[in-house]
Design goal:
The protein has about 180 residues and is an all-alpha fold. It has ten helices and no strands. The chain is elongated.
């Protein structure tokens, strides 16, 4: 209930700043109840961030699993679409993470990326069998970072009148081009 209320407050506030008092009022609990579970607002935000990271990791690993048997362009669209949708679903938490504690979010993103690196090698390894392990690792590192950056840009910063589907397709083609020409 407290985390749901905190997320709702983040969705309403473009600045992403909430207080324990506002959280208690929104959740219809006493301030003591908030402090019983969380020492401060940062602890609430950390919990929301870790929940988002877990959900994004699950979504991305599922997409990579689906993409394994697809043709390269379709596979890349699957991955980009899934990651963009996951970022959109957790936009309020991502926005506050990017604006207030980028270093901490970077560390959290490393937790998403780390376990997925072996899966993230599948598409590049299929397209670039000529690369040795070190070169493939470097390529995967760059492509995973670019994918995260581009998908978060589509999810969080996309102009209102833009075509999301087209942006996802363009991003997928850009990433494929990067893999094929590396």
């Amino acid at each position: 209930m407290l985390l749901t209320s905190a997320y709702e407050l983040l969705e309403r506030s473009p600045t992403g700043r909430i207080s324990t008092t506002a959280l208690a009022e929104h959740a219809h609990v006493s301030i003591g109840t908030v402090y019983r579970y969380f020492p401060d607002v940062d602890a609430v935000l950390d919990e929301l961030r870790m929940t988002a990271v877990h959900a994004i990791t699950t979504s991305l690993s599922t997409a990579i699993g689906r993409a394994m048997d697809q043709e390269p362009e379709e596979a890349m669209v699957t991955v980009v679409e899934s990651l963009t949708a996951a970022f959109e679903k957790h936009a309020a938490v991502l926005r506050v993470s990017y604006t207030s504690e980028e270093i901490e979010f970077g560390l959290a993103w490393a937790q998403v990326e780390g376990p997925l690196r072996p899966l993230g090698r599948i598409i590049p390894a299929r397209l670039r069998p000529d690369l040795d392990d070190a070169a493939l690792d470097d390529l995967v590192f760059i492509v995973m970072g670019a994918t995260a950056s581009l998908c978060s840009r589509i999810a969080l910063l996309r102009p209102r009148r833009s075509d999301r589907t087209r942006m996802v397709a363009v991003t997928a083609r850009m990433l494929l081009a990067a893999i094929e020409s590396a």
